[in-house]
Amino acid sequence: MTRFFSKIIVVLKPFYLGLMLFFMYAPIAVLIIFSFNDSRSRGTWEGFSFRWYEQLFNDPHTQSALRNTILLAIFSTIFATLIGTLAAIGIDRMKKRSRTVVMLISRVPVMMPDVITGISLMMLFQFVFRMLGFGGLGFGTMLLAHIVFNVPYVILSVTPKIRQLDPNLYEAALDLGSNPARAFFQVILPELWPGVITGAMLAFTMSVDDFMVSFFTTSPGVQNLSIRIFSMTRRGVDPSINALSTIIFVVVMIMLILINLRDKHLITKRGEDGNEN
Amino acid sequence: MKKALLTLALAATLIFTGCSNDAANTQTAASNEGTETAAVNHPPLHVANWGLFIYEPVLQMFEEEYGIRVIYTTYSTNEELHAMMVHQGAAFDVVTPSDYMVERMINEGLLVQINWDNIPNYRYIGDNFKNLAFDPQNLYSVPYKWGTFGIVYNTTKVDQVVDSWRILWDEQFAGEIFMYDSSRCTMGAVQRMLGFSMNSTSQDELDQVRNALIEQAPLVRAFLADQIIDNMIGGEGILATVYNGCARWIINYNPDHNFVVPQEGSQLWFNSMVIPATTQNQANAEKFINFMNRPDIALLNTLYTRYSTSNMGAFNLLPEDWQNDPIYWPADEILARGEVFVDLGAFREAFELAWTQVLLSQ
Amino acid sequence: MRRLFTYPYILWLAIFVIAPLLLVVFFAVTGTDTYGNTYFTLQNMGQFFEGIIDDQPFFQRIYVVITMRSLRLALQTAVICFILGYPLAYILASKGFRNKPFLIFLFIMPMWMNFLVRTYGWMSILERNGIMNNFLRLLNLPTIDIMFTDSAVLLGMVYNFLPFMVLPIYTSLTKMDKRIIEAAQDLGANPRNVFLRVVFPLSLPGVVSGITMVFMPAAATFIIPNLLGGGQFFLLGNLVEQQFMLAGNWHFGSAVAVVMIILMIVSTFILSRFDRQEEVSEGGMRL
To answer: Rounded to two decimals, what is the model's pTM?
Structure first.
């Protein structure tokens, strides 16, 4: 009886996996196939063509949205990584009670629904910044908002590395005659590096993908790709959105494969050196 | 954003170590993108317009001719435009609201008076479109497009004569009806159906309109804006309420359709180009408006958008079948049945609340 | 050095995390009169709960209706994600797959694509004359008409949030101490009991964090319902968006936001209690 049952399960497992994979990839496959469709129709195939790619590359809005997305991702990653790493080090040296409080507040942007983060920052920029004469919404405010929601991710990925740090390391460096700055850059930072990199990558991904917060903190003329796609889906009749998704998919796939290949390479190398923790 | 936690989990499973390649990869993709039209000493011109309401290449033609860069934004309702200008602080130079919103913007002091010396092409504007009630002395607005609102339906699936808004309450079309996702358009149609003015500020009449729409709810497939075009072309529904320009799109791609303006009357809308007080360079904004009213440009625009032009210079250049097309250029009797929206003022809040109640009843 | 790092960051938190939330609360409990003066009022909050006590027709208590609809949809999403996601996580965590990292990679990969784009893909599939129905017609099967209905929205939500459910459960399953399972087996528990009494209780923290990661975002979303459900699909997120982006009523919009924050805190609290109870029973089991 149990044997019969377990046999069924053995068959069912791959079947279920396949079904779920199909579910995950169906809409993506549809987008990719129909990006080559020679018709405006979303549902019927009418021949192969590159016309939506052509249209996409001739569309100045999508180009500037792409540029904005990349600039936002790069700058928000740099700033969030800086702020987050330093903050994580600072938080670690606080007393336990204040550390708990600061960590809790740090996580607020992660816990809040995106809509709330979006509107609350919008009010800050519109209401307070205006009053102080900083000008209105635009690329600058969108960048600030991205940094705000990215910092917690950096902190969350750096903190575990700090905990692993030997508390005597820094003192040892000082005792050996190093100045604080040098001790930090040459002794502490290299130890934290993997966490910093993970945090930076998270921040980059978050920034590229964000819709909600950007939607509320930018002015209508400045779009990122998500906002651009949103306005395209609302307007309809534009399959160049399929072409755009296909390109995004290919870029993401190549990126992830590269990362994974590199990781595997590193892991095996480390294994050989016997350095693995 | 919760995705981050997920990614963290992923990082734990896949063990990310170092990678700086990703940023570089994407960046090369960006640098391959086209170059931008050079802007010579002029601040860029921020223009906001309805979706599908311009032939976008004319913007490039303007940029090339005047060396002024155009930043173009679209919106899908008057209310959205108003919110962009007032609540999101968007500093536009040229926007194109329609009638009642022009009136509201004038009353709220959001617009500047136009210097007519800079818009000689104003002479091409048809006299019918000048000095309308929302801007009686024509101080603020240059007419852009005009039209009406009605029902587009699939002739292969509707046997009866379509001449009343009431067909949208006919149960044989349950689940086949698309309604326009804009408070004044849809509620206005129902106001006319019940014999009220579209500018009524009576709470009692508003309640009746709301109740009629709540009663209709089970028959409606969805409330959509521009997406109605795609859905009707693809045969996703049988009846839809749309602007005449949208109807022209639908019929061109799917000739099984017809468009009527119901007997009870409908809205008659007039879109105008206006200059918001936030403009950084009024003269450039006026150059833009003047350019858009050059008959050849206005012609390109109307041919692409299929919305009726207010520019008689362009109208006279149109092919004859366009000039005689009752959808493109509605007949006088339809216009006679039309009503132009007026700003509701203090009644606006009650009106929008009723609209939310309608949407919720679905 | 500690102060050098800490104080600027605390200032940063004060400006960009605390101040914005205080602004939300401030706007929620104030109003602006025609002269632009601000005054204290509970009217915005009251407006939200209007009609909740007396037995009004639904359209007189629309905000409560919107809240209930959002919560119901979020709950349905979380439950379906759990039902679909737990077996998936369990299979992924079980032994016997050669290329496990690659499999997991396959499941996570779609997450890196913009969710708007993927939702748009579903639109093409679900339409009446969309790909799914064209395919069904080809096989002479009856067509499925769910575009612009609750089912379409639910499908889109489950699709988007499923990985958030799978990964925490997967993590808790793989991190589980295998010796406990072996011990249970050695003590004669049959597979069903091993799963129900040992594995499932131990994976509950993963389930709880999965539900947390699905429920609140699902209750607050406004894009997926808008695209797959049509303009009439009104949820809490849509209400906030409408108040801030269309009506320009920051006071009422903030009141809605405050309600959402309270809902979030309450649901997190309930779930975290659940989590803690499990820890206790887990401890008890170890004894």
So the answer is: 0.86
